[in-house]
């Protein structure tokens, strides 16, 4: 049995613990993403049922991503100590509780609290990136991380498409909309329990075995190297991820409402088009990781940084076009444009993350991942404001993303082999 990280990504293989883990870990993140944003495409119905105002919806959006910030930091550390396998199983079991129980919410306050609790499962992303990094060699880590992250994020697209159909089916059985959206959330809860079993049964922490089997827990690993908090590279990547993944989870939250309110679509149609945005993850994030690896092999980390700055710039420009779209056709076309570069930026960011500090991959992944949610939380305040329309919010975000892309461009990374560690990045005067 091969106990070394793989240097090739065999997408259609389930042989070996590396590829079993690869497929189960992206599926775990997919299911968590499905549950995390399962309520988003049903918000038109929930808004009417609970009598929610625009500021209250904004608070719910903020709550859904804010709890993930702290959770990702904690989960990153737990991956370093418990191992990704047990961390994933425990997160799935605990996270399924608010997913199952959110149907008990009958007013704004209780719904907000449940949304806050559900947001914790967004930390599953850190486990996926950490676990994938364990299973693949340096030259392929960026691609492998991008594929697992992208296919996991695909859950945001599928849930936008599928949850309205589940809702409609439940209504078709004679239940009222008041009951149907509540019962719909039982589906992702059950999915999470199934994946918890698969994760426990069929994965290992490393190609050589679980942490306890190889003696990795305790001792030297019990002390966190907090010095990485002084490394500019970590914060630059966190800022970049705030612009791409932060915008992604924001769009997953508001897209259905935007299409209903701006283009007068039905909830099911709005969910379909919002789902198309998420479906771009089936290839776009992986594309970002693949290109990052190829550029890194040729031009080193500096090349990876320039790629990240470029796709962020294009994402921002696409958002500006989307904000100006006056027709549904133009809105969909521009959405696909900025979605492509946004998701490539996700992959390009995590094409760099595993090389920042190889002894604290979980903590670095957690900080950068938390940066993504911090961006989503900050953007949520724009959509909460009664003085700013959704269209204006998209425009402002586009400008902010472009500014951050410039910061990434002028952050200096050393040219060299991918296996080399980045120099401390500095902002040029």
From TrEMBL:
Q: Which InterPro entries does the record associate with it? A: MFS (IPR011701), MFS_dom (IPR020846), MFS_trans_sf (IPR036259), NO3_transporter (IPR044772)
Membrane disposition: Multi-pass membrane protein
Q: Where in the cell is it found?
A: Membrane
The chain positions of domain Major facilitator superfamily (MFS) profile read 21-416
Q: Which residues cross the membrane?
A: 21-44, 56-75, 87-106, 112-130, 151-175, 181-202, 232-251, 271-291, 312-341, 361-382, 394-413
Q: Which SUPFAM superfamilies match?
A: MFS general substrate transporter
Matching Pfam families: MFS_1
Keywords noted in UniProt: Membrane, Nitrate assimilation, Transmembrane, Transmembrane helix
Q: Which CDD domains match?
A: MFS_NRT2_like
- Primary site of residence: membrane
The similarity annotation says: Belongs to the major facilitator superfamily. Nitrate/nitrite porter (TC 2.A.1.8) family.
Could you tell me what this protein is called?
MFS transporter
């Amino acid at each position: 049995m091969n106990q070394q990280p793989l240097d090739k990504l065999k997408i259609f293989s389930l042989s070996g613990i590396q590829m079993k883990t690869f497929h189960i870990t992206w599926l775990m993140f997919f299911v968590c993403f499905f549950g995390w944003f399962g309520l988003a495409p049903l918000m038109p119905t929930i808004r009417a049922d609970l009598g929610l105002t625009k500021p209250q919806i904004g608070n719910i959006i903020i709550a859904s991503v804010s709890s993930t910030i702290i959770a990702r930091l904690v989960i990153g550390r737990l991956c370093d100590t418990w191992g990704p396998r047990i961390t994933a199983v425990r997160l799935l079991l605990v996270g399924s509780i608010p997913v199952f129980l959110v149907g008990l919410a009958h007013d704004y306050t209780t719904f907000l609290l449940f949304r806050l609790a559900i947001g914790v499962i967004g930390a599953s992303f850190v486990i996926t990136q950490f676990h994938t990094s364990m299973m693949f060699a340096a030259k392929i880590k960026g691609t492998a991380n991008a594929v697992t992250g992208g296919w996991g994020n695909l859950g945001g697209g599928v849930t936008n498409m599928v949850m309205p159909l589940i809702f409609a089916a439940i209504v078709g059985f004679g239940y009222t909309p008041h009951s149907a959206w509540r019962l719909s959330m039982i589906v992702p809860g059950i999915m999470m329990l199934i994946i918890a079993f698969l994760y426990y049964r069929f994965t290992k922490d490393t190609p050589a075995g679980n942490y306890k089997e190889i003696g990795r827990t305790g001792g030297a690993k019990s002390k966190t190297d907090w010095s990485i908090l002084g490394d500019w590279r970590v914060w630059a990547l966190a800022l970049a991820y705030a612009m791409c993944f932060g915008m992604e989870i924001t769009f997953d939250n508001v897209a259905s409402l935007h299409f209903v309110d701006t283009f007068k679509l039905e909830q099911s149609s709005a969910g379909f088009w919002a789902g198309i945005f998420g479906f771009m993850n089936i290839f776009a994030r992986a594309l970002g990781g693949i290109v990052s690896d190829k550029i890194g092999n040729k031009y080193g980390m500096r090349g990876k940084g320039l790629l990240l700055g470029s796709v962020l710039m294009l994402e921002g420009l696409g958002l500006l076009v989307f904000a100006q779209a006056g027709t549904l056709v133009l809105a969909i076309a521009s959405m696909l444009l900025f979605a492509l570069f946004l998701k490539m930026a996700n992959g390009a960011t995590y094409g760099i993350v595993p090389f920042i500090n190889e002894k604290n991959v979980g903590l670095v992944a957690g900080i950068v991942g938390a940066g993504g949610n911090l961006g989503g939380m900050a953007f949520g305040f724009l959509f909460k404001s009664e003085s700013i329309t959704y269209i204006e919010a998209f425009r402002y975000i586009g400008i902010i993303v472009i500014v951050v892309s410039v910061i990434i461009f002028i952050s200096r990374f050393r040219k060299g082999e991918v296996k080399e560690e980045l120099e401390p990045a500095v902002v040029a005067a």
